[in-house]
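A note from the maintainers: we've had questions about how concatenated examples are separated. There is no special marker in the raw files; a new sequence line simply starts the next protein. For clarity in this README we add a label.
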Amino acid sequence: MVLKISGRGQVPPFLVMDVLRAASEREIQGDHVLHMEIGQPSLGVPKGVAEAVARELESGDPMGYTLAQGLPALCRRIAAHTRKTYGVDVPMEHVFCTMGSSSAFLMAFLTAFAPGDRVGLAAPGYPAYRHILKAVGVEAVLLPVGADSRFQPTPEMIDSLRPGLDGLIVASPSNPTGSMLPPEALRELAEYCHDNGIRLISDEIYHGITYGMTAATATAFSSSAVVINSFSKYYCMTGWRLGWMVLPEDMIRAVECLAQNLFISPPTISQIAAVRVFDHLDELDAVVKGYACNRDILVHGLADIGIDRVAPPDGAFYVYADISHLGLDSRELCHRMLNETGIAVAPGWDFDPVDGGRSVRFSYSGSTATVVTAIERLRDWLPRLRV
């Protein structure tokens, strides 16, 4: 007997995780691997946060469910942070805590879009956007972006589409490029979407990790936009699996009902830690200064060895580099780079299913020593690379 299997799970793999697995296998064999494939901080939460969590655990108090929306204390802290950072007043009722940003995207897509709807997103862009959209029956419409638009979508791109869009996902800073929308450009996109009945989903999970350019929030420019953020990146809480949304009025109850049934509530211990992490932003800003140093070393080092066509790394902790002049597809180049140099990077196919063979993504979220050593290894290896 052959049993039916739903096609919803037939989505492409997240290739960077395949690279991580291959890199881990090499480490098990005793090789020294430089991890530049994964986008996560190499440091943990500030010491004061860890101590507060330890005290909470030692108290013996029950660690039960929270509200589906999350701890009221955390929702208040997020609302206060939004007010202080962006000058935008957000009622705490519009803040919704989630099990990482991944569950936030799932619930936002399920709430905002119906099967068959069309949602635009930049290519290159984060692969899980289009994979989650496919799993819920929504069409992902790729918007090819490049240096002419600073790797970000524009109202003109959307206006030219026939048929039009039901939604648009923007990320500023972006993964994989690190490019950002200046505040006025985000305002223009947000107002265009609102005026044309397009639901804007603004991925702001790399806010806090920027280099000279101001990050703006879509909440400041649109009452219909959905903002998604995370404690994984700037806050160094990747494994704690906690994110949040700022929701428009018309989506609050629907998201709450989905969360109650799909997830019940976010992890309580993670929420307790997140309340405390807002007391340690100075320490987190110091971590960002380390990323800035790594970025400069990597960009200048790559240019010095002939990899000088990169997306503008305005924020996040990635360099998305054009490697087409090396004569190898990005997947093959990444495979050989790992096997021959011990450097793990992500192939562009993860982020651009049409033109991803031309680029790779370097993450510089690790130590400065990792970045320096990687450049040294590449400097030695590239002249010996045979196509």
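[label: protein 2]
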Amino acid sequence: MHDETFHDASALIAAIMRELVDFPDDTPGVMDVLVRIAEQDLSEDNFNAPEPCRKPACRLLPQTVASGLVVSPRVCGAIAALEDRMHWFQAGHYSDEVMRQPGYMDSYAAMEIIGPRGFFTGDDFGLGLMILGPGLHYPDHYHAAPELYWLLTGPIEYRRAPGGFHIAGTADTIWNEPNQVHAMKTGEVPMLCIWAWTRDVDQVPVLVGAA
């Protein structure tokens, strides 16, 4: 099982890299992520199969992975192959009350492919997946880490403060500079995205206006 999981995790990273390479060179953040992935130790010696852990939002995986096949059969196929061995988590300081949305935590989850809770430890770098269920508002927040989102499903509404919300479509990328306040809203379609933090990954997101 160790060898199979190492192979499947490596295949998922390779699939993500192959897709990101095809983006135009001037797509904000994509080259930063590719460079940082290339700098990681992805050898079997640095591999650690995490304890599988599911969250309620994982019920949305079959739907979102199937929808994401239109964006990337390679990436979504690799996600499906590894899905039962992923460790999903939630930010410890988030709650329905903090997010001001009943049921928020039942429809939100993230996991790391590369990172402290992932298959490879990572060197001040994080790469993973995020699920956000339909009809949710991830309110204004910021973090020190520069961040890339690549949407496997959509569309969503997205904003960077102080601007308003704009549509980000399926297969779009979103790049957030360090400490840039940003927010997102999902519509009828649940969101599945690839995310990457390129540095300062040990500093948690800060919700604007949270007590």
